[in-house]
Design brief:
Helices cover 29% and strands 21% of the residues. By secondary structure, it is an alpha+beta fold. The chain is globular and about 60 Å long. Bound molecules: 3,4-dihydroxyphenylalanine.
Length: 363
Amino acid sequence: MYNLLEKQYESDSMTNITSGVVGKMSMKLLNDRASPLSQLWTRIQTSFEELWPNQFSFHQNDNPIVSVKQNFDELLIPHHHPSRSRNESYYLNRHLMLRTHMTAHERELMRQGFKRFLIAGDVYRRDEIDRTHFPAFHQVEGVSILSLKELSNHSANFLHNSADANVIKLIDKACEAGQLEHDDRGLLKMALLDLHSKIDGLLRKLFGNVDIRWQETYFPFTQPSLEAEVFYKDRWVEVLGCGILKTSIVQAPLQEDGKIDHIAWAFGIGLERIAMILHDIPDIRLFWSHDRRFKDQFVGGNNSLHPSGHPVKFVPFSKYPPINRDISFFIPSQSDFHPNNLYEIVREIASDLVEDVKLVMGP
Ligand code: DAH
């Protein structure tokens, strides 16, 4: 038994939660008005409201403890999937864990009857340490359940508006494989075009004129699945994953004859990456800083925007030059050592002082 945030939990062979990560759980950055992350969450909500008034409901869940069933099983994530390993996720015990994505909350909101919603929260993954990876970060998950009637009433031309020829080609290709439960490719395509128009609208609201690239990808809970990247400082940065939810995941009433009469799309967007791009924030660990030199840069602005409407740009303040340290040690050939175990120790001892840990292979 152990105590976590004033509750008792049974520990077992899966337990691997650390005091470092528990400290992050209590920070609740989405409720801190001075955090660029909470300001971005507000901007996403106002963007949706401006673009599609009264269509989506907005939710926030500040308790990252979920069941393994919610986070993995119910989302069809296979038992051998690497994300289930103790090296990649934080477990309280074999039944409870820290959510690794906000997708874990989709089903419960659909069950409560919500059809179009966004939900934000903090998520946790054991990860390498560097400027763009941190074991705690934030995601917004979006879902829309569209009735087949609604979709067939939509004029294709209307939905095509935001999609250029490349995107339409990609969507056509993604629909070719179809989805077992939805053999009407036309409707599947309409749903994907609707999803594209929402994401494209949101990204353009946030970034203004930006290059966006779409690709097909794979997620266990969606088919087809797509990801979107934006071009920033000479490279493409992945900002979200999305797709058509597999029907076993969708929680919505069926028709009287038992037929499925809806298609649902979903997306998951990482808040840190977007905020880093918008504000030129060079290191993901800054979001967790108590340093006034960071926080004061974002208070006072209207949703971290200048009166001009442009995002406030971060001004670096580090007063120490960086230093490098080499550590080497032997690992027995039979060991089940995983680099994440070392990253965890470094994080425990040196907290956020360490900017980067690199594995350099010996000769
Ligand atoms: N849950 C995924 C992740 O954290 C992101 C994601 C992908 C969410 C596709 C979705 C989706 O809703 O449809 O990497």
